[in-house]
Amino acid sequence: MLETSKKNFHEIGFYDLPAMINHVLAKSGTDKLTYVGLSQACPAFMVMSALRPEYSKKIVLANFLAPVTAYAAKTKFAYFNYYEQNQDVYDQDVAPVYDITNVTTPLAIYFGKADILANVEGIYRQYKLMQNVVLYYRVESNDFNHMDFVYAKDLNKHLNNKVIETIDVYNKPKI
Q1: What is the three-class DSSP state of 160?
Q2: Residue-wise pLDDT tens digits, 138-169
Q3: Contact 37, 65 (CB under 8 A)
Q4: Bridge partners for 97 per DSSP
Q5: 65, 67, 43, 68: which is closest to 160 by C-alpha?
């Protein structure tokens, strides 16, 4: 049995997401899809796009719900930091940085003001330099937190309707 608890967003982004995307595209017979990721699935998507940029062409729009941030030196999206073991793991003292210029897919980012796992400052800091962010959407409820992205009783009102509206805009048939 695969121990998924030992996987990190790097492995998920490099191996798992591309395999899932290939599977969905093969089964659906389409050449593009819309991505919706929650929490740690967001940095995993960034890893995939940074290291395997050919997948950016397969995604019409990536929707990041409650994205957790993964950055080093406050502004750079970096590999996992092993601190004292970085030299052993990466052959350098600091964790390497992902090349986010490879992330070219349009990104829609949804966050809650009360989400302490996906803090607003971290989200803005991580994504502000990216030209492909098409939407920053803060859920209107001031107490909407990380778990509400899954369990809120009024999820359609606060989030799902906006996600669907944004997806529809990017998936309109071209005339």
Answers
A1: helix
A2: 998 889 999 999 999 999 999 999 999 999 99
A3: yes
A4: 78
A5: 65
- Backbone angles phi and psi of 18, in degrees to 5: -60, -40
Apex 156 CA angle, 150 and 159, nearest 5? 70
Contact 97, 77 (CB under 8 A): yes
Which long-range contacts does 2-8 make (Cβ < 8 Å, 24+ apart)? 8/80
Q: What is the 3-state secondary structure (H, E, C) of 90-115?
A: HCCCCCCECCHHHCCCCEEEEECCCC
pTM score of the predicted model: 0.88
Q: What is the mean pLDDT of residues 104-120?
A: 87
Task: Return phi, psi of residue 88, to 5°.
Answer: -70, -40
Domains and CATH numbers, the chain: 8-20+31-80+91-170 (3.40.50.1820)
Structure tokens at 60: 């019409």
Q: Residue 1 pLDDT more than 50?
A: no
Task: Give the residue from 80, 37, 33, 35 showing the smallest Cα distance to 58.
Answer: 33
Question: What is the rounded distance in angstroms from the CA atom of residue 23 to the CA atom of residue 10?
Answer: 20
The two structure tokens encoding residue 82: 């092993």
